[in-house]
Every structure is written in C-alpha cells, then in structure tokens.
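Why this split exists: single-chain examples teach little about how molecules sit against one another. For that reason, every record in the complexes split bundles all components of an assembly together and asks for one structure covering all of them. Below is a record exactly as it appears in the raw files.
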Amino acid sequence: MTTRFAVLGAGRIGQVHARAVTSTPGARLVAVAEPHAAAAEAVATAYNCDIRTIDEIEASSDIDAVIICTPTDTHADLIERFARAGKAIFCEKPVDLSLSRVRACLDVVGETGATLMVGFNRRFDPDFMAVKAAIDAGRIGKVEMVTITSRDPGAPPYDYITRSGGIFRDMTIHDFDMARWLLGEEVETVMAAASVLTDPKIGELGDYDSVNVILRTASGRQAIITNSRRASYGYDQRIEVLGDKGALSAANTHEANIQFAGEGGFTQPPLLNFFMTRYTAAYANEIAAFIAAVNAGATPPTSGEDGLLALALAEAALKSVAEDRAVRVAEILG
Amino acid sequence: MTTRFAVLGAGRIGQVHARAVTSTPGARLVAVAEPHAAAAEAVATAYNCDIRTIDEIEASSDIDAVIICTPTDTHADLIERFARAGKAIFCEKPVDLSLSRVRACLDVVGETGATLMVGFNRRFDPDFMAVKAAIDAGRIGKVEMVTITSRDPGAPPYDYITRSGGIFRDMTIHDFDMARWLLGEEVETVMAAASVLTDPKIGELGDYDSVNVILRTASGRQAIITNSRRASYGYDQRIEVLGDKGALSAANTHEANIQFAGEGGFTQPPLLNFFMTRYTAAYANEIAAFIAAVNAGATPPTSGEDGLLALALAEAALKSVAEDRAVRVAEILG
Amino acid sequence: MTTRFAVLGAGRIGQVHARAVTSTPGARLVAVAEPHAAAAEAVATAYNCDIRTIDEIEASSDIDAVIICTPTDTHADLIERFARAGKAIFCEKPVDLSLSRVRACLDVVGETGATLMVGFNRRFDPDFMAVKAAIDAGRIGKVEMVTITSRDPGAPPYDYITRSGGIFRDMTIHDFDMARWLLGEEVETVMAAASVLTDPKIGELGDYDSVNVILRTASGRQAIITNSRRASYGYDQRIEVLGDKGALSAANTHEANIQFAGEGGFTQPPLLNFFMTRYTAAYANEIAAFIAAVNAGATPPTSGEDGLLALALAEAALKSVAEDRAVRVAEILG
Amino acid sequence: MTTRFAVLGAGRIGQVHARAVTSTPGARLVAVAEPHAAAAEAVATAYNCDIRTIDEIEASSDIDAVIICTPTDTHADLIERFARAGKAIFCEKPVDLSLSRVRACLDVVGETGATLMVGFNRRFDPDFMAVKAAIDAGRIGKVEMVTITSRDPGAPPYDYITRSGGIFRDMTIHDFDMARWLLGEEVETVMAAASVLTDPKIGELGDYDSVNVILRTASGRQAIITNSRRASYGYDQRIEVLGDKGALSAANTHEANIQFAGEGGFTQPPLLNFFMTRYTAAYANEIAAFIAAVNAGATPPTSGEDGLLALALAEAALKSVAEDRAVRVAEILG
C-alpha cells in the first residue's frame, strides 16, 4: 500500500521531510503547502508534487497524511484541523508551549481517533537506537542511572530565544524525552539549576544558557542532563546508561573518522556541528517510522503523550529553578 | 543541464548505481539493460525507467551516458562499443584482467575521444577523501610512507577465485590504486610475499590468501599493503600516511558509534562487514563525480589509465612472488 | 636538606606512603608506629627503619614530620598532638567525620602554626593534573561547567558503611574536592538526589548507593557529580570541564593499552579496578608534594581547610536529600 | 636468596639499571664500574654501593652477577670475561655488530655454562606483554600476520650513525626481535626496501632513514616492519597481530590520557617521546626478569641466541636491499 502525503511548510525541516517521503517505499508526496511562492516552487519541482493551500489539502481526498513543519504557534490548531479531517498527522515537537493547549489538542486527537506522531528525532538516531536496543536486549540488566550531555555550538538568535519558551522548553525538552525513553520509567521529581554564563543578554531576555537537571523516578532511578547553549567544539550529543550489569554509551559524531598526528599531538576533526547534519539519518528514520505505522495501521512510536510529558518536565524544571527545590511532576500535571 | 543515463546490468552494483543516478540532480535514469527479466523489471519499477537491450541503448539518441555493471569479461567490449557510439562511459574496475586487452581498449577510447571513468570506489570514501584533502592541503608536508591495511571478512566462493585473476588482480588492485593516489608519485618497483594461511583449497586453485607488498617510487617514497582474505573481526579498511610534518590516518567504520562496558572490558560493535555497506557513501560519491564531470565536459577523476596502472602493479606483484625479487614496473609495462 | 619521617599506621596506605618516603630524594623514613607487631616488622625490614610507639615518635628529636595512616577516628587527636609537638603533618582525609571536630582541630593547628597537609590523592593523579594545568594555562578560557563521574566497582563491607559517615562523607567527598579544585570558585548551593539501587541492605543501614549532585557557585558556574557504589565494569573515574573556549577531559585507565578484535566486536581490557592501583602515581606524587613543601618551608598544596570545605559540601548534600531542596553552604558553615 | 650485582657503565642506561636492581627484592647493588669519576660517584651515592674497576669486579667474590652497560664494542669481550669468571651476565643488545664475533662470544658462554641474558627491552613492555599473553592464551588462534610500526622522533647524531651499524642493525633490530617473538616461528626469508627521505646526509653516511621489511616463515606466516628515523608526532611504537580467530594490537602511549576539544577539533597530547620514558616500565621489568632467573637458577627469557638471530635478520635485510631480492636467512647463518 502507498500512503499519500502533504507537507505543510517548506522551510528547512519541511524540505528534509519532503525528501524523506519521496525516497521511502510505500509513500508518495502529493502536495506541499507554503506561503512563500519560491520555496513552494522549489519543493514542487524537486520532488515533482503539487502546490496546494492548507485548506485545499484539508479537503483533498487524495491525501492520507500530513507532515506539519509550520511555525510552532500553528501546530496545535493544524493538528486539530487535520485530526478532524481524518488525516494521519506527523508534527515536529512541540505541539505547543502551553501545557493546557497541548492537553486540549490531544483531547481532540483522542476524540477523532486520528493517528498522531510527535517527532522526537533523537530517538531515531542510529547510535542512540543501538544503545536502546542493547538495553532492551538486557545487555546492562536493570537501568539505574542515565547521563545526557547536550550542548549547542552556539545560542539561537535573541529573537528566537524570546519566542522559544526558554532553554528548558526548547532545548532540554529533547533530553527530557531521551531520559524518559532510556530510564524506562516515568520521572517523579525534578531538580534543576540554571545560570547565565555565555551571554548576559540571554539573562536579560529572561532565559538561561547553562543548566543541569536531576530526574528521579519512583523506584529511585536517576538521570542527569547537562546543557549549555555554547560549546566551542561543536554540537555535543552524548548519552550514557548505567545498569546493574554494565554501561552503554554513544559518543559524538565527527566530521570524518580520521586523525592527524603532529608536533602538537593527535587531532580528530570537529563534530558535525549542525543539528540537521548531525541527525540526518535520524530525520529520515523518523519519517520512515511514521510511514510504516500509517501503512500498518499501527500506533506510531512517539505520541502526543510523549510531547506532553516532556513539556511537563520542562515546566517542573522551571519551577525547581524558581523555588530552589525538588518539584514533583504531579504538581505540574495536576 | 541533465545527462540521460542507462545502466547496463541490474545486479547488486547496478542497482546501487541506478539509485545513485536517480537521486542526483542533473542526472536522469532513462533505461536499464538486463537479461534477467525480473531483475530488469525491479529496477524499471523502482526508478521509473525503460527496459532496453544493450543494442537498443547503443542506438538510443535519448541516452548520453552508460554505467557498465555487467560481468568483468564483457567490460572491454562494451567500453569500445559505447565509446564508438559517442556515449560517456562509467565502468566498474577492472577494464579487463589482461593488460594487453586493457591497453587495446583504452586505445579505442583514445581514438574516439570518449569520456571514460573507471570506478575505484575507495577514492570516494568520505574518510579517505578527508585524508587526501589534508595531504593536498599540505598538512603533513611531503609524503614519505603509506600504510594500507585491507582485509576481507572471508574469502569469496572458490568458483569466483578461479575467475578473479587472483588476489592481486581482484583484491590488492584497490590498494594499488589507493597507494598510487596517496603516494602522489608513480611506483617504480614492487616486492611482494604471498602465502596460503586461511584455506589450503585456495592454494590448490593457484591463488594466495595472505599477502604483503612493498611499493617504491623513484624518489624513494614507499607504501606497504597488507591483505588477508580472512579477518574474523570484519571488513578491515585502514590507511595511514606519514609525511615530514606529521601523519594522517583513517580508521575503520563500526556498525554503530557506541560502547558497552562490562565485566569483560569495554567493547565496540563489529565493523561494517560488507563492502557495499562500508562503501555506501563512496559509491554514491563516485557516480556523482562522474555525473559532474559529464555535465561539465570535464575529465573524470579516475581514468582508464588508472585502471591500467593498478593492473600493472598486480602483474608486477605476481612476478615478484614467482621470482622472489623486486620487480620494476617498467618490466611489466614494457 | 633531608626531612626525617615517621609513618603512623602500617596498614595498606601506610605501606604505600612508607615506600613513597623511602624513594623520594630529600626524605628519610626514620620510624614506623604500628600496634600489630608483624605489620610493624614488615615495614621496618622493607624500608630499614625503627619501630617506635606514637608516644616515642612524639618525643623524638630526630623526626621532623609524620604521616598519619591510622583509623579515621584517631586523626583529629593525632593532628593536634603532633601540631603541638612541632612536627609537620600529613594526614589522609578526612580529619574527622564531624564538622565541629574538624574545626576545633584546625584551630589547634592554626594556633601552633604547624604545617598540615590533608591528603586528597586525586589532585595528584597525572591525568587530572594535566587537565588542571591546561585550565590554569587558559586552554579553555573561563570554566563554566564541571562533570565528575565517579563509580566504585562495588560497595564496601556493611560494617564499613556504618562507620563511614555515609556515601557523601566517604565517597562523594573526593568529588567535592575535585569540583572545588576544578571550578576555581567556592560552591554556594548544593542540590542532591540519592537512591538505593544496588543493594537494599545499604538502605537499611541508613545509607544510599546512587547519588547525583549539582553544585553552583556565586557566579553561576556549576558542577555535577554522579556516583554509584557499583559499576560492573570497574573503578570509573572521569572528569570533564567546559569553558568558554573549549573542553578538557580525562578518561579512565585500563589494565593495558591494548585491543582485541574478534567476531563480537572490538574490546579493550577492564579498568584498573582498585583505588590503590588506579592511583599509584597519585599517592606517590602526593607524598612528594608534601616533602617538597616541608623542605621548602612552604604551604602544602592541600590544606585542612580543603578537608573542612569538602566535608561541608557533604553535609549540605545530606541536608538537600533530607529536605528535597537546594541547600546553601552558608547554612552548614554558619 | 639475594643476588649481588655490579653495574658496568654508569651512563644513562646504567643508572636506570642500577635503580632497578636497588628497588627489586632479592637483589643488591654492590658495585659500579665507570671511568668517569663524577658519574661513578653519583651512582655510588644514590644507591649506596662501592666504586670498583672492572678488573676488581671480575675478581670480587661478593658479586654474583653483572649488568653490562658499556659501549657496544666492549660487549663481547666483557661477556666472555665475566662468563669465564663465573658471573651471571645481563648485556644490553647488541652483543656485537659482527655476526661472527657474536657467534664466537656465544660459543665461550656455552662452554662456560654461564647465564646470559641479552636485553630486548620491548618484550617487557606491559602492553606488548599483554598482547603476547593473549596470543599465548589462544585468544586469536593461530598467528598469521604481524605488523610492527616503529618510528623514532628524530635521527641520532651523524657520529652515532657511522658507528651504529646502520638502521637495520641499530633500530630495526628491535622490531626483528619483536617479530620473531610474536610470529612464534623462525623467519625464513627477508625482503626489504630502504630509502633516504628525511636527510640526504644520512645517505651520504651510507645509511637509510626509511625502511620497510617483509619477513616470511616456513609455514607462510608473515610480518611487516615499517621504520622511519623521523616522526614529527613522536616516538611511534605499535604492534598488531592477526590470527585466525581475531586480531590484537597495542597502541601508542601518550604523555597523558586527556583530551582537549576546541574549535579546531579534538586533541590528545603527544606521545611519550623518548625511549627511556616510553619504556620505563619495560626496563624495570627486564631487570626483574633477569634477577628472577638468576635467583631461580633458570634460563633468562631472552638469550644470546635471540641477539644472534635478530642480527642475522638485519644482515639479511641489508643484503635484500643491496641485491633487490628476497634473501633466505640460511644464506646469512650458513
């Protein structure tokens, strides 16, 4: 069977997903929606598909599924519209920056019975998948401690920071999801510390650039997350999991697997320095997983609930910083 | 501009190249030729192209270039036919197992002025390209010594061994090409030692499975190549280059960039174990380079001459083993 | 000049320090004190020194300095006695498990003007010293974040756990000292989470086996410490420091610097698995630093104050766990 | 039991061995012989031993064993004298640069029944020992191929080169010994290529600075050795062994086990850059092995025969270069 797709939004990530749909067996890209004519045209030409408006796509009987790559503040509305229109929906995280808005949206999805996948691309990175598969195969026994190091090469533009919901909702949220996935148990309490160390202007905008978080589950498993908005050596993305029978870790990915040896020592190239380059395979795998789920009538591997719970951890972290105490997730979720 | 392609042969490598053509901007796959109907059909369906006979392709005015993926003993004839037909030609190495046949074929190519690229996929591996780029950028100064380690996970079928021309013409030939590429100077003398260590049957078939070769250029630069038909730990592909200002090396590629730590020590996954998996990016880059050369009317980066000279080094190595002495390449090339 | 030493206590660590004194130019081992006659005799024979009682050593005019390797609960008393006796003193951490007792003891030391070094062996590990030297040389600019991973191969005997003061005072205390040393700024707040994951009996004894701690300085620098009493893969000791210009890290030390490659992948030997083996060089360097300080009449590199402050961080961590909140170090130090 | 030693020669290596004797249980340093009074005095003071002449030591009844650290051209004579005097003898390689002189000397040793150990320090390096132990434990099955990379940071003084016997007798000789040790079978044929690449003056002195060698045993096992007198990145000492069940390798040793990550990539410190620093543990282990053999009345682990055979491989390599052919070791040994 072949699922027919529309991509909403032809920005950077929309283009990536359009290519992923085109190159996946069992999927066909039928249309793209994009207000900027040139961007729309570029995708339509490259992948040989129609240009349609969002309204037209909603009404199209030759479209089974949509991939939402529009600005964050449109996500929840579009999810509701397309859920009601009976389309399967893939949406890049987050559903919304407001927990109550996310909840309302997921209620609509629930009522319509629509298929919704919220994209957490890192779960589809081949190295991280290999770590998870080894955990699931019992390689390290029972999981006890998770360590996630996640640092961006540099901060986003100030303008973006003001709209992003802050470092916990924008950046740490990926690590919250990874922690939940790797811990194999829901988080009960959150402790966080936050500083402004790389740029005082970030503090003036009400955000932080350097944070550490400790997550604790009911049975006492713990995860630590360390984030910085600046790492001069590149996009640092590592995970490490300790179990009673051993430990697993995934290392960083360098530009090339080579080494130079000279008077100053031994040097390997910098890291892949941009999230779309670093996670190229992850983005492709993510869309392939969505296509596979839709074609099989199965539940996608990452859900709206995953989006909601990661956001709740971000809220708890913010509260922990504000009140200098451990915050129970139940306080947030009510 | 768009170059229109036909792929001759729809076996393993033909499929890889068909996909590469399809996914490269500036190229279009028009036809495939393949005697086995099912294989032809599979490619035609997957990449939406015609099925034509080789004769038809030769006569097709809507085809500018061919990619020859047929059995080795047809390469030279096909190169000559398509050179005369005015098509650009990509041919997987080798042109032929006989040096004189290669020479005759290249003469025809020369007379017709046809564009010919002989595929040495390893030159297009991203890691090896990064090493070469660093050499060309002067990072290690003048090249002095090259070390190439190249081991197959296991020997090919006996049947293939009898047709392959032997380990030097079939396996070491890739390393001879790498050595020429990295030394930056033509090889003058060849010394080789050969043994049968992994399977006596290989010896009974007149071949070797374990060889070491020393190459020497006129100025005294040297390369060593170490080959085995068996490496229990996988497809071992490493290069190392010493210059007066430093050394460069490319390491092996593992299945995943992860590590397990347990009672027995620290373990990384096995190597990518199959040449088509290990060199996926190399095959795609190789075809992209051919397409770029054809579109630009430029000389492709690997030539028929490269195929000839690598084969001459294989002949010299065989003679060195037979006569237990250093053999000058000039003795082979005449 | 030569400083004349006595070693108090001929247990494991006493023997290590006796050997260090003997093999260091500028130092001479004059006597050992040890209640177990056989142990005393062994050291006296091996290093050609006298056996004397502690009282005799206190009264000996041919002894300039003592190295205290007796049980923890004797440390503070012995420090006071030998400070009053005018000897230079090296004492293994901790001075005492009680903050007020430590304070009282340091007061005595201060009054007498005695030279006191409290041993934090890890500061003298060659790899950690290399990291610190690179920080001090400005290699990574301003320090922002420190990550310390410290896991023991297995828990100590239950009996020891009851006397140890708990994981924060016994194990994390080393990491607290490392964090202070690497942060380059005093810690202001402590957040800690603690679990019992490896053995419920440890919980019954009132201790934890798995803890994570976040430390924060006044300027916002942060350190995270992750500890476990069990790591099936060995004695895990790593540090990592992020600065505005780069990051530095020290990796684990394996039994040998070799690799096995086989069907199951690539394996390196386990870690040096015992603190005295892992930190052999550190123990020797530590005593050499003390000898150098005494001979030069200089202040030793680690002080009683360092011992006090590390203990205060342990107290703060305990309070943080008990009260589920961030604890200011000022609350502890008063 | 305690063996009483004299060290002949108080140069660099004599001092190292004097310290090794002093710090090894079961051994006592009684005397040093050294024509330079200051050097003799320094050792006598540091290790509390007598200064005696070689004649006196030969006649001393309180000396059981000698360690010969005098210039190479005195080795054979001293071995003969002390063999006749009934002392156990440790001599740094080589016994002599002339094969016939070595043979004559070993004949004398044989007649006297003296215990002789010829030092090949690398066999006592902890990492190389771990590789050998794993081979002997059957970890990689049957040995097939050995790869030895051995590069000096820089060439020795011209003056030394003229006296050294050339690169094969002075430098490669260590690798010849390692190859014999790791192959587990005697070498039958030698092929070598030699160039002058780092300094033309070395060629004018009749020597080479860049060589590659292939060794082949009767059963077809092979070893390759790659040497250079210059490696800008330091003292490069690696081994790698392929067997039918896997491969083992020992990596280089860096100044510290740390890493810097910055804009230019990831950097580890240079290699330990001087043979006495790189092989500190090896030198100590070597002397300990000699002492253990003498105390046990056992045959030392490296013999005069080992010295002879390594030298024969050097001769064969020289002949191979001169005649551009594979040379059988039997041609050399007669």
